[in-house]
Amino acid sequence: MFNSKPLNIQHLLVVALTLTAITFGFIPSATQTIDDQIVALEWNGTGSHLALLYYDGQIEVFDASSNQVIRQFSAEIGTLVEWHPTQPDVLAVVTSQAEIEIWNLTQNIQLHTLSASHRITALAWSPAADILVYATSTGMGIADRSTIHIWNVTTATETMSY
């Protein structure tokens, strides 16, 4: 009899990373350190680029057609990455310092840094505009308070939180 266990986020991440490694012909070595660990990955809206965020804040962007790293840069120690939905060269990176760094990868420049008052736990772009929505948490426990923030990237202002 087959005994299946429910998948958790770690299992799903291992599957995603394995598929990415196979896709790009990259198999991690046994000598990798914690800094080599991928903590987040995200395809851009066109499927042409894949961003890999490593534990130490190193970011690599792969070109899907050539299977080559086309950009490499560093952010603060990162926790999340999210591509802009209509600008395939704009990437938001959440850092462990409660900041969101927004990068233009074509120009290879950081466009904005948004600072939050607490740890950022989730991030999403609005599908139609330069609006970022992110969630913060006051701590690490289940009963901690979460707040949703809506940020206008164009004007660099928070428009609402609740």
Describe what this molecule looks like in 3D.
- The chain is mostly beta strands and 162 residues long.
- It has a single domain (9-27, 37-161), classed as YVTN repeat-like/Quinoprotein amine dehydrogenase (Methylamine Dehydrogenase, Chain H, 7 Propeller).
- The protein is built from one helix and twelve strands.
- A four-stranded antiparallel sheet has the order 1-2-3-4, with no helix packed on it. A four-stranded antiparallel sheet has the order 5-6-7-8, with no helix packed on it.
- The chain is globular and about 45 Å long.
- The model is unreliable at 1-8 and 27-32 (pLDDT under 50).
Element-level helix/strand string: HEEEEEEEEEEEE
Largest sheet: 4 strands, antiparallel
Shape: globular
Structural class, from secondary structure content? mainly beta
Residue-averaged pLDDT:
77
- What is the percent of helical residues? under 10%
Span of the ends, CA to CA: 49 Å
At CATH level 2, the architecture is 7 Propeller
CATH superfamily: YVTN repeat-like/Quinoprotein amine dehydrogenase
Report strand order across the widest sheet: 1-2-3-4
Question: What is the highest CATH level, the class?
Answer: Mainly Beta
How many E-type strands? 12
According to CATH, the fold-level topology is Methylamine Dehydrogenase, Chain H
Strand content: over 45%
Rg computed from alpha carbons, rounded to a whole number of angstroms: 17 Å
